[in-house]
Amino acid sequence: MRLGAPELDALAQVTSGLLDRAGERVDDPAWVGHARRAWEDSPTEVRRTVREFRRNSGPDGALVLRRLPIGASDLPPTPMVRGSVQRVPSLPAATLLLFAAGLGDPAAFAAEKSGALVQDVVPVPGQEEVQGNVGSVELTFHTENAFHPHRPDYVMLLCLRADHEGLAELRTSCVRRVLPLLTPRTRAALGRPEYVTEAPPSFGPAGEGTAHAVLTGDPDDPDWCIDEAATRGVTPEARAALAELSEVTHRTYTAVRLRPGDLTVVDNRVTLHGRSAFTPRYDGQDRWLQRTFAFSDLRRSRDHRPGDGTVLVK
After folding, report:
1. Rounded average pLDDT over 290-307
2. What are phi and psi of 131, to 5 degrees?
3. pLDDT confidence band for 202 (50 / 70 / 90)
4. Distance between CA atoms of 189 and 214, rounded to whole angstroms?
5. Residue 145 to residues 70, 125, 165, Cα–Cα distance (Å)
6. Got the DSSP string for 257-274?
7. 49 CB neighbour count, 10 Å cutoff
8. What's the CA gap between 221 and 208, in Å, rounded?
9. Number of C-alpha atoms within 13 angstroms, CB side, residue 251?
10. The model's pTM
């Protein structure tokens, strides 16, 4: 979706006004509350689009909003360290918190990126081969935090800076596209709890989750839960089903090259995401995305969030 100039100007007024009300930290509950209230002042077309996406994320399960006002010309150098997050309020952070409020509520995980609500996705020297947000090799398809019982409903990725060549692709694969291409035998196998998923490297030694199915819910419009790099089948049928699923997803994915100000919202319940390989230069101008998770019903994870806060601690 490309917003017109009037909508972009109105959105800039909302995010700038939100930034004016910020304290010293992005994660300040007061600022999160301001973002929740400021969402109602966002342009009608933006609120309508997000509301319709929440109700039905469509055949691709992803929404891209182009060229949002984020002050791209005033950005500092791209960070180059593990665990990099955005703690100081900024226009990109205001944008992410605003849209998180439109989708539900922002929250994060204590074991990942120190529980920050706004996290940097940047290449880190020496981590090129890592299957995670610090790597620069191809990132395989995955449900975000597939191992966790309280996965985010939406993953928001805001592009602050593209890769030097402008070739890196954000890739998505929606179950609504993939399901009709699978054999009945594979669909049945993916619906049985014969899979286990390890935690991603960013969580540290968190171990595996419990046995789960890849497809759950309505057989005609299921949710799915899988991480190509971390999910394994525990039966021969399950392993064969994963092989067929991988072949189909890699044959049918959708790709988009993000530019500064582009915000992608991925419906994490029905859509996998990944990334093509790219070549970082570590010169302060490398690809830089910022990420925030949104939960449509934060109440479900209440026992994981001390004090009804925004950080899941287990």
Report:
1. 96
2. -85, 80
3. low
4. 9
5. 27, 24, 29
6. ---TT-EEEEETTTEEEE
7. 18
8. 27
9. 11
10. 0.95
